[in-house]
Structure prediction request, 398 residues.
Amino acid sequence: MRSLSPNQRSQSIEESATLAISFRAQQLKAQGKDIIALGAGEPDFPTPEPIARAAIRAIEDGKYRYTPASGLPQLREAGAKWLKNAFALEFSADEVLVTAGAKPALHMALSTIVEKGDRVLIPAPYWVSYPALVRMADGEPVVVPSVPDQGFVHTADQIAAAADVSGARGIILNYPNNPSGAVPTRAQMESIVRVAAQRDMWILSDEIYAQLRYDGAEYCSPAHFESGRGRTMVVGGFTKSHTLTGWRVGFLAGPKDVIAAAARAQSQVLGNACTISQEASLVACDEPPHEEIARRLPAFDARRKFLVREINEIPGLRLGAPRGAFYAFVDARKLCAERGMTDAQLCSRLLEEQFLATVPGSAFGAPGFLRISYAAPMKDLEGAVARLRAFATVKVAP
Ligand code: PMP
Ligand code: GLU
Prediction:
């Protein structure tokens, strides 16, 4: 008799590093440790009241039954309108799928388009889940090494070389980038889209941080370009911009036949995204797109500037100003080299000795770096800087 054990594919799937670290931080907190948790990126702002109220109303009105697997028809419509108004993205309602957050949107997209063994380019640093999501779709992730000296934006030539060597069928782009905060210029984006188009590659564009940009960084989607239309699937939603983190709702937008196929898959594995969250998302879509962002952005920006100023004062650490999202991707290569440790060891010592939770760059395909989420109150960031300084300046035996 064959014993019951996880199959090979599931054994190749590691736990999400961001979630693992934040659970470890929660455990230490529960033990009474004075933890500063800057691991997972989750805004400290509450979900805006009109959205929360809409969810309460939905329950009171009995709007909690199954919806079509593709989502409430009115939300697909509202989502298409929101994508147009907020991002100048042209998708019709039947080109929009409502999913249970950005993560399932990525999963639905990849499991719908990746053929067995297809190679998928993932420029580093990448969000932790991409390689696992590609493998779960029976594809093969191909990491394009990170380019810190270029502000973490690859040139078209670098992407083209990686595509040609690997024969990749598709690429996952994520701008603003988690963890680096990189935002390419329109010209840089256009040249990368051209490379994909010339090789008939599809593009999966994770735009979950699209509204969080600083220093005049311009939002630009691969789907804005003629050569990107028809080959780009966009992942979007309110997870980060409106703290819909635990609500589990988001959008996948793309060619109608891909969306219809993804909806069929979703009907088998998920059914539908939470009905109550869908009802609440209708309100989020109807809100003037930039109102909540206008409230949050100055706070994120002040925290970002604080970290850039303070971290660059700490020996062994360097931080280039992130232009989007809410992460500081700290270059700790010097400190790691001086102390003879890896970034993973650095993070684990920061957690166990300084009670500061961060994520090692190696989890994002960029060893020697350290990710700090600044979706956290300023007092936590002040504490984090003090603890980093204490760790970096402590005398070590020669
Ligand atoms: N993409 C990126 C780049 C992320 O940082 C995250 C984390 N929230 C996700 C996708 C997943 O978002 P969601 O919580 O909507 O599934
Ligand atoms: N996306 C956030 C992060 O990168 C939340 C954690 C997660 O979903 O993995 O920290």
